[in-house]
């Protein structure tokens, strides 16, 4: 009971973990000190620390996305399981063609009635006890059904590997295509944001010109309508960006609460200058 008194002096309101640890210590004879329990149990009233990996979005390049898709995509995993299953079936069918060795043992206890064999009084013979043990060996020389089964297993492995390779290319193509769609949606969103900023400046300029008496009310209304249209386009672009990211996360089989972000970007590059004399 010394452990119980030490814990009660350490804290007046012990947590559930402390109570459980105390009961286990008393049952199994383990002396639990307050310092040991403090190291194992969280501090009372301490705020829960947020997981950095759970809250932060998952940053992926195109190469990382493809590798993650090949590792976690359900269809890809299923194809790999089918290849392993075909290999096991082929090994099972091949085992029937391999030499079989075993150790067999048997015991028998027999008793006979001599009257059932020859005329005479009923006399029992025995009991006779027989015990036999020894190795056994067998080898299939020629069995067409077993050979055909082995050949079918080999063809099954080739077909499963071909399907696995096809599924691999399908997953890679789908991940790359969806990744490019995410980049396109992000570029479109950035362009719409630039148009919203431009429309906002034009509206502010029209509003200031109208306040000074130079501009017309129709110009201010037109600039405001254009600004609202661009804001609506921005909402659509952000929705499209989130939708494409959700589709990519589904291909990668990520958890629903896991946010996804791409690190590659579509960069604009200038076309090389073409000189007329070089033609």
Written description of the protein model:
- By secondary structure, the protein is an alpha+beta fold.
- It has 8 helices and 4 strands, in the order ααααβααββααβ.
- The protein has helices spanning 2-10, 16-28, 34-40, 52-55, 62-72, 74-95, 144-212, 217-251; strands at 58-60, 100-113, 124-138, 260-262.
- Helix 6 (74-95) runs antiparallel to helix 7.
- The protein is rod-shaped, with a radius of gyration of 40 Å.
- The N and C termini lie far apart (98 Å).
- 13% of the residues are buried.
Main features:
279 residues, alpha+beta, 8 helices, 4 strands, 13% strand, disordered N terminus
Q: Give the terminus-to-terminus CA distance.
A: 98 Å
Rg, rounded, reads 40 Å
Low-confidence stretches: 1-18, 26-53
The whole-number mean of residue pLDDT values reads 78
β-sheet strand percentage: 5-15%
Largest sheet: spatial strand order: 1-4
Specify the biggest β-sheet: 2 strands, parallel
SSE pattern, N- to C-terminal: HHHHEHHEEHHE
Determine the fraction of residues in helical runs and give it as a percent range. 55-70%
According to DSSP, the number of beta strands is 4
Structural class: alpha+beta
Number of helices: 8
SSE layout and pairing:
Layout lengths: L1 H9 L5 H13 L5 H7 L11 H4 L2 E3 L1 H11 L1 H22 L4 E14 L10 E15 L5 H69 L4 H35 L8 E3 L17
Parallel strand pairs: 1-4
Antiparallel strand pairs: 2-3
Helix pairs in contact: 5-7, 6-7, 7-8
Brief summary of the model shown:
61% of the residues lie in helices and 13% in strands.
């Amino acid at each position: 009971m010394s452990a119980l008194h030490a814990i009660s002096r350490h804290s007046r309101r012990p947590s559930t973990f402390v109570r459980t640890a105390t009961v286990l210590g008393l049952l199994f004879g383990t002396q639990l000190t307050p310092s040991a329990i403090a190291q194992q149990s969280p501090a009372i009233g301490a705020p829960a620390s947020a997981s950095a990996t759970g809250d932060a979005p998952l940053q992926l390049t195109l190469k990382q996305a493809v590798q993650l898709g090949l590792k976690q995509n359900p269809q890809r995993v299923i194809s790999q399981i089918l290849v392993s299953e075909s290999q096991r079936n082929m090994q099972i069918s091949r085992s029937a063609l391999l030499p079989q060795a075993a150790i067999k043992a048997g015991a028998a206890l027999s008793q006979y009635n001599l009257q059932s064999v020859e005329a005479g009084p009923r006399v029992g013979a025995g009991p006779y006890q027989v015990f036999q043990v020894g190795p056994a060996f067998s080898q299939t020389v020629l069995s067409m059904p077993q050979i055909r089964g082995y050949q079918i297993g080999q063809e099954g492995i080739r077909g499963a590997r071909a399907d696995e390779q096809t599924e691999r290319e399908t997953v890679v193509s789908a991940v790359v295509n969806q990744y490019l769609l995410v980049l396109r949606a992000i570029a479109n969103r950035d362009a719409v944001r630039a148009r919203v900023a431009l429309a906002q400046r034009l509206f502010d300029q029209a509003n200031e010109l109208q306040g000074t008496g130079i501009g017309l009310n129709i110009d201010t209304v037109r600039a405001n309508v254009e600004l609202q249209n661009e804001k609506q386009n921005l909402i659509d672009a952000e929705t499209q960006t989130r939708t494409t990211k959700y589709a990519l996360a589904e291909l990668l089989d990520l958890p629903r609460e896991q946010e996804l972000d791409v690190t590659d970007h579509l960069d604009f590059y200038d076309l090389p200058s073409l000189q007329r004399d070089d033609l």
